[in-house]
Design a protein that fits this description.
- Two copies of one chain form a homodimer.
- Chain A is of the alpha/beta class and 406 residues long.
- The first copy, chain A, folds into three domains: 70 residues, no CATH class; 231 residues, Rossmann fold, CATH 3.40.50; 77 residues, Winged helix-like DNA-binding domain superfamily/Winged helix DNA-binding domain (Arc Repressor Mutant, subunit A).
- Chain A has 18 helices and eleven strands.
- Chain A has a nine-stranded mixed sheet with strand order 1-2-6-5-4-3-7-8-9, with helices on both faces.
- In chain A, helix 1 packs across helix 3, helix 2 crosses helix 3 and helix 15 packs across helix 17.
- The longest helix of chain A has 16 residues.
- Chains A and B meet through helix 4, helix 8, helix 11, helix 13 and strand 9 of A and helix 4, helix 8, helix 11, helix 13 and strand 9 of B.
- Chains A, B: Belongs to the DprA/Smf family.
- Chains A, B: Pfam families: DNA_processg_A, WHD_DprA.
- Chains A, B: This is DNA processing protein.
Chain lengths: 406, 406
């Protein structure tokens, strides 16, 4: 076995002995390399009491190197490959997880946020290239029609603009984001919390096959690994840290989706949140997140997302504005005169000038201007508002209508 | 005529000569008092060129003092009263408007944000007392069913907790907020942009009568004044500055409601925004406001509003959380064991300990605990998940269900 092959085998074995993200293991690998770290742990030489116990317990179920070798064979049969930091396609951005520290950690899983030791990948794109320009779109499984619509639009719009969509594999928002990206013919990446041969949930098996055909299925766990609960949280750090930003579309009050956004915040990525009706339980978590994290950005669509993650000066969202009306360009005097005109009938220039608080000479000049703009008509008995005409925007815009719009 | 009566008449006359909020007039009144200011302006002695022209133009339509005297008589017949800073019921908070300066002013109306010279009031509550603990609820006229529901709930909830609801008189959100407050039997104040004898819009005339019966109808303009367009913006500064905070419920991209919130921000009041579906045109303005003003607070209901405007330590909103589950109280080892149990069937303690990565002695201890919590059952062939039972919350909460929730 070559040194390279030994290293790869050791990384797989280490991921089996202790869950991905374990800081003590990552530190050892950084210092000693994977092979020496594996030897040290198997010899009972772990510097960390908890890790020592875990390795000993796990080892009673099998020989770590043998388990790893079997996993590699199984991956081969699956058409999946192992990707390690030694490979060219390793996604450099996940190294940023080494500085991810969540505050107020009470569960061990929230503290074990070290970078991955390896990835299992199905699909033909190089992993690093796929994640280079990527945005995560995550959210509730029990999504509403509203949330699924928004997630599909985001997935479609991002992929259409050559951004890679990244999400988990769950029903609801995750699946909708992938489907949107697939429908645009773009690139989408599903990061799973179990072996690539165990589609979870089963109902998304067809979706996973479509993703693997044109995008990537990715996992830190070897073939055969089960989707145990803490693995979703461990996986979430990769979704947050492997992308430039995370968008949460819907989340209930107690949701894993906001856990991903939380990791994005503390990994110095952009955390983005799509609001929803305050009457929807599926938007409670998103609104709480916006209230709790001033750094989180409210986004309402692809343009806003691109504004956050896009390079400065490009991909900027236009400010939402109503249509420009001719009256918008008027100065204060012309505006005052327009607004002083009666809704019905005409008014002489003297009275009009007094009502508007401008002198008569100015009034005459401004009224000519208003006539030119077809906002006002001159009649025998004075000046009157122009009759409402169908505007080009298909909506009549009369002064009477606008007079109550502020 | 007493000196007091002369002062009152002069304030009314000044409001007729130049629109409320005019800074030059307010500065003169602060320095010279209302009577001397009126004399100065009528003598053509205005220090401000624009004000000079306006006063001269307006004066061609009548004698300012005579117009004011007539307005006072008309108010008397209406059952309305004039309130000035000399009255005990003057709302002290509006004085804060003297420091309100909007940035990037291009329209004159955005610069003229001085405190009011007087108010016309219909209703029996003292104005200052009514506004002491008040929150503004404003929004789109073309509100959706969603927005009207939220505004009604806010109006009801605030008034029920002895907060005064303040709004304009428009259809949509304004009317819904008032109706909610009225339905709770609480206090609501409508601030109009025209004379109190000219209900605008007419369709709300019945609502205005109900408001005057138990709350207050308020305006800076004398009886007979028309609802000219700029008056709504002038009025908005009073809604923003007279309350502790302003909540915007729905607003299109180009909306007067966000103008009120903008004034709240720059008057150092709390600006609050209720989000909505990103697919709704009526929430575009609210979302843009949240994006534009980091100081604006996203609120989803009365509890959040009270948290912002309530006194420190009282009226605090609880953080939205899902129900506590027994598994929430488990330590890492117990949780790992619970999650390592197969979905169906039992597993021996040795295999279970290896899967969970804990030693066998710890496993046995934690499994007893899990048995006590009725999360796990001991069987002849090992340990198994407890069968799903209807929980007290009417929803089965099994480990299998929770294992995919992160």
């Amino acid at each position: 076995m070559s040194a390279d092959e030994e290293n790869r085998l050791a990384r797989v074995a280490l991921t089996w002995l202790a869950e991905p993200g374990t800081r003590a293991v990552h530190r050892l690998v950084e210092r000693l390399g994977p092979v020496a770290t594996l030897d040290l742990l198997l010899d009972g030489g772990s510097p960390d009491g908890w890790l020592h116990t875990t390795v000993a317990a796990r080892s009673t179920a099998g020989d770590a190197r043998a388990v790893a070798a079997e996993a590699l064979e199984r991956a081969d049969r699956l058409g999946a490959r192992l990707v390690t930091p030694d490979d060219e396609e390793w996604p450099a951005r996940v190294a940023g997880l080494s500085t991810l520290h969540l505050p107020d950690v009470t569960r061990r899983v929230d503290g074990e946020t070290a970078p991955p030791l390896c990835f299992w990948v199905r699909g033909s794109w190089p992993l690093g290239e796929a994640l280079e320009r990527s945005v995560a779109v995550v959210g509730a499984r029990a999504a509403t029609g509203y949330g699924q619509h928004v997630a599909t639009e985001l997935g479609y719009g991002l992929a259409e603009r050559d951004w890679t969509v990244v999400s988990g594999g769950a029903f609801g928002i995750d699946a909708a984001a992938h489907r949107g990206a697939l429908n645009s013919g773009g690139l989408t990446v599903a990061v799973l919390a179990c072996g690539l041969d165990r589609p979870y949930p089963m109902g998304n098996a067809g979706l996973f096959d479509r993703i693997a055909d044109t995008g990537l299925l990715v996992s830190e766990w070897p073939p055969g690994a089960e989707p145990l609960r803490p693995r979703f949280l461990i996986r979430n750090r990769v979704i947050a840290g492997g992308t430039l930003g995370t968008v949460v579309v819907e989340a209930s009050a107690r949701s894993g989706a906001t856990q991903t956004a939380r990791r994005a915040i503390y990994a110095n990525r952009v955390a983005m949140v799509v609001p929803g009706p305050v009457t929807s339980a599926m938007s409670v978590g998103t609104h709480e997140f916006l209230r709790e994290f001033p750094k989180a950005r409210l986004v309402t669509g692809v343009a806003h997302v691109l504004e956050e993650v896009g390079r400065i000066g490009t991909d900027l969202a236009p400010l939402a504005r109503g249509p420009q009306r001719p009256a918008d360009t008027l100065d204060d005097d012309a505006r005052s005169l327009l607004e002083a005109l009666p809704r019905r009938g005409a008014m002489g220039v003297d009275r009009l000038a007094a009502r508007a608080g401008v002198d008569v000479r100015t009034a005459l000049r401004k009224l000519s201007l208003l006539e030119e703009l077809t906002l006002v008509v001159r009649r025998d008995d004075g000046y009157a508002l122009a009759p409402p005409a169908k505007s080009k925007r298909g909506k009549p815009a009369t002064a009477a209508e606008t007079s109550a719009s502020a």
